[in-house]
Protein: Iron-sulfur cluster carrier protein
Amino acid sequence: MTDDHHEHDLSPELTEALEGIAEALGRLVDPVTGMPLDETEAEIEVGYDDGTVFAGVTLGYPCGGLAGQWEEMAQEACRPLMEKAPLVGSELQFDLFFEAAGTEAPDHSETLAGVKQIIAVASGKGGVGKSTTAVNLALALVAEGARVGILDADIYGPSMPLMLGVKEGTRPEVEEQKFFVPIEAHGLKTMSLGYLMTEDTPAVWRGPMAGGALQQILGQTRWGDLDYLIVDMPPGTGDIQLTLSQKATLAGAIIVTTPQDLALLDAIKGVEMFRKVEVPVLGIVENMAIHTCSSCGHKEHIFGAGGGEKMAESYGVCMLGSLPLAMSIREQADSGNPTVAADPDSDESLIYRAMARRATAEAWLNADDGPEIEIV
Ligand SMILES: Nc1ncnc2c1ncn2[C@@H]1O[C@H](COP(=O)(O)OP(=O)(O)OP(=O)(O)O)[C@@H](O)[C@H]1O
Structure:
């Protein structure tokens, strides 16, 4: 697509050269999806003004961490054209943009109207590090350039207030007697059952009532404009999880597992549950997969290597990545400053960021194929 802003003053040679630039950009292979831009819904815009070629690529997932790589790829692909008449002597200014695809959700309440995609983070069983992963993935999306909210729907142990360093006893503001205002932490809009529970209430929220409570908290929070709302689901694959998946129009689900056989079997149940309700599984995260010895740095697959990968392959889902069992991940989460917020360029943070890009890229590709899924 050629920007027609200045087209009337462009010579036919210049117009042709700019079209060549657009074509060269269209052939670039997106490092995250592995697809040439031409085969995706990426938008390419090219314009020219006073010795500068302006080129922009808009992707459907946030990708700020790869902006430098894109710049190099674009400059290299366009160089042959930039070195030839009529562009020789001009400069190429390249910009990478992001625009999340919206999920059509006519049944959504007004509070969710500004939310483009809801993504669930789930696990087949408890204790695999689902909440830690959900929080770090949400922060990773912020680091990549998205507006993100997170709903802690873990009724059995809402750990988010602690993990995000929200002071005990902080309660969300209530507007018009029925809307919660999310609490901001580390650049995220957050809402948790933990903000509403007191020592006496947990029992009331659990069990059969929980599904309704979650539904209510999801719909009664004024999320505002968000690219992604991450829902940290309760562990397991029972009725509560199913209800939430059916009632909210989910753009996709991410499943967290550890590499042990039993956890993997439970993760398979998770994949099957989402498939049953036609929610696309965006991928599997393998957590606590490798142990690094804190004194000698030796790395070991304590539960055996490749379990998550094999499972992902045999179920036709994407393996988003593996996280090590790392003292830093636990300590940072437990002290209210999760890894990606504490050190966005550490090795572990880069893994979370790559996984976040890949998962949202999957959601983008899914949004392209055919009709939106709507379950009521
Ligand atoms: N990769 C990791 N390395 C080290 N510790 C981790 C890692 N991931 C999570 N943990 C730690 O494991 C514990 C359990 O994690 P978390 O609360 O995220 O699990 P969960 O699956 O959400 O649990 P539940 O289902 O009980 O809510 C926490 O103390 C957390 O800090």
